[in-house]
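pinging the channel bc i need a second pair of eyes. not urgent but kinda urgent?? the chain im working w is below, pasted from the shared doc
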Amino acid sequence: MKNLLFILLIAAFAFLAIFFYWQLDTTKSELALQNQRILDRDTKIYKQDKLVDSLQKQLSGAPNASQSADTIELMPPPSAQFMDELGSLSEADLNRLQKKGLRNPEADLKNDLMKKQQQFIPVKGTVGGTMTIRDIRILNDRYALAYFEDGHNGGNLILKYAVEGGKISWKVLDSYSM
């Protein structure tokens, strides 16, 4: 009888040990799953915070550290400074351009013109210089003004643009070389 009681006691302890080990294993796997979910949420929040910071920098005019290689920051020379109020898109202009497929209208227009600039500049560079656009002002939802130079000579362009389905087409209306 003592042996039977001893065997039952050992069997009960073995059952409890197996039960608690199973509970521990289940809890560990649930904890790992929850940790992964938290990590995924933290990653999403980090990416969203980074996007918000980037958009706030764009709105404030600060340069963005993650700009692509084909994005150029325009720094006009002091001799070609436009009036500060010239070249600011209104909210209505921004909304119209966004409806036509531009995510960030002013930046998208400037970057597109910079990529296509060589086909619009009417004069060639002198003394080894290359004519390039140095400053762009988007006047409204149809027109832009650009200053170009090669370091020796310069000029201005008045351009008309159209946006359809996110595609931008440009037309030179007038140009002036100094």
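so The mean pLDDT is 84. and The chain has two domains: 1-66, 78-177. — does that match what u expected or am i reading it wrong
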